[in-house]
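Fold it.
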Amino acid sequence: MIKFFKISVLALSVLFLNSCASGYKKIQPKTINFASRSENNTIVLEYKYDLLEKKYKKKELNNGLKVIAIKVTNNTSNDLVFGKDIRLTYENGNELNLLETNVVYNTIKQSPASYLWYLLLTPMQFQTTTTNSFGQQTSSSSTPIGLVIGPGLAGGNMIAASSANKNFQNDLTKNDIIGKIIKKGETVYGIVGIRSDNYDTIKVK
């Protein structure tokens, strides 16, 4: 009984570690060390892939999206609009299709409701038995540990996922650069999302 219980605990521990809600590491474009750079006349673009971690990274890859931090410097003598006067292209000249913030968020966010499956653990009980010196069972008892474990894990993971999603959404909204006016001589930072499975070189146009 004890051996079976230990095996069950080990199996459940592995399951929990792989199924728990993921945290979210905030993206702060102004603190990023941009390794890639493109310049067109007096417009300078710096950018970086690989911003997300854990489940957000996994969903980004599984859905064929790329979330990119960018830094744009307008060294012209005119105010320019990002997405209109300033556009991003691949090396072959094809323009990047920048996704709306809500599309990126809804595609990559965690689903808090998915953690309701932990409620299936609610009926789980811890069985204990005692035997005498002759190996005969003298008593047994059960503790309904599932009443605590099931709802506790479900609620905790739903709260954690919702909190992480909120931070992710806040970063996307706060750093939405599409349609933003970049004044002459100004440098702005942003986060954009595109449909891509590759880490292609990006140019500014």
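The first strand starts at residue 36 and ends at 40.
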